[in-house]
Amino acid sequence: MTPFVLPHTLLGEGPHHVVAVHGWFADRDAYAAVRPDLDLSSFPYAFVDLRGYGEAMGAPGAYTTSEGAADVLALVGRLGWDRFSLIGHSMGGSVVQRVAATAPHRVRRLVGVSPVPASGLPMPPDQWGLFADAADRPASRRAIIDITTGSVRPAAWLDRMVRRSLRRSDPKAFRAWLDSWAVEDFHADVEGSTVPALAVVGALDPALGAPLTRDTCWLRWYARGELTELPAAGHYAHGRDPAPAHPHRRGLPAGRRMTTAVPDVFDPRVYAAGLPHDAYRALRESRPVAWQDECEVLGWPAGPGFWAVTRHADVVRVLKDAECFSSWLGATQIRDPDPADLPFIRRMMLNQDPPHHGRLRRLVSRAFTPGRIERFTAAARDRARELLTAAREYGPVVDLVATVTDDYALLNLADLLGVPESDRGLLFGWTERVIAYQDPDEPPVLDADGKPVNPRSPAILREMFAYAQELAAYKRRRPADDLTTGPSRARTLRC
Predict the structure, then answer these.
(1) Does the global pTM surpass 0.90?
(2) pLDDT surpasses 60 at 247
(3) Highest mean pLDDT among 92-96, 317-321, 408-412
(4) Is 19 within 8 Å of 86 (Cβ atoms)?
(5) In 203-258, which ranges are E strands?
(6) Which of 139, 273, 284, 450 has the most crowded Cβ, counting Cβ within 10 A?
(7) Percent helix, strand and coil across the chain, each rounded to 5?
(8) Which of 318, 324, 292 is nearest to 307 (CA)?
(9) Average pLDDT score over the chain
(10) Torsion 94-234-108-49 (CA) sign
């Protein structure tokens, strides 16, 4: 039977051999970011894939740190390396400590990057559940990565890390490795070791940061142990995790207890890959009222943040209690409007509290009579058929948004409001201004100083409000079967 050999990448040449072992979430490519800067003229490196990762996905095994250490020793024997140094990240830090405990006379130096202690990493039940679920739940992997990098990294980076982790790890092996590195305690085998041992940790890592490494394990167990803390790094210092997405946050207090991360449901970039159903489910289950940071988006500065309420019963309570949860006080858009703009913005129905909101809502609701709904439904069906038929003339491949859905929504809205056909292009332009400001493909409206203009400010909406006033006056003179006529004749539509 052919003995198992860890898949590996060899780089460099020289007398000082180095083996690099990855962590729980990735394969040997976790070190790809630092490879261009290595001294390959003095140090030959072997970057390995542990069983269950990368090219070793599907390899049978026990998936334990002791087995991983045996595999590393088998590899260096195959390579003819009598003495060598070791680098291990996170779980890999536990594996390389096992190697040092088994063959201390062969290990020249030991480097742990956010290393798991040789004593394992005990967790409270809720935290263990999060880690155990990570084998099959991408959202749990994302939450762990977010926590261990201080909850300040960009959403796109977090998503990329999760995708790579899913592609390069076997779920069964991933789960089995957890029972080894988190539970097994072999610190008695390394305590008093004289192997030179450097631990590199990130100040933003609340789980495996300086307090744990300094006070409870590394510096106590290794006689020649050293500790370096990187102030702007989290758990993935070797992967060069990017600058914080929220510059106003300056990291977490040292020694903060690890807690479940709050999913980000504010950043529009989160929605680029689809609706974040898992994130909302996690909020409903564990954080039904959760604080959300407002990060910088497309030139818009970071905001003060807000509370996200996600359970239906709580949402209903909030909507019914205008005294405590006012729509009028600060308006309803997430981005806080300029205080000077509030009197203007409060004139919208959406930004009014009872009794004014209720009076307007009743007027509009009366317009939705069964007969009008039936006529509108028939017209909407006919319009859909016409647009789809016309789209077929463009050929076998068409831009559905440009040829059908943009016009369909606009024409239906214009028909419902009774906007003359000649004015319907105005609606499209105003819609683009108000809604598309978060679209990176659309140029923002800038003020005289080159700063983005709030799309719901008077500078953007005044023209639309003036048109609504003209349309209401027109409908009072010439009533029609539409939604504008009723409120305008009641003289309640005051813009």
Answers:
(1) no
(2) no
(3) 92-96
(4) yes
(5) 225-230
(6) 139
(7) 45, 10, 40
(8) 292
(9) 85
(10) positive
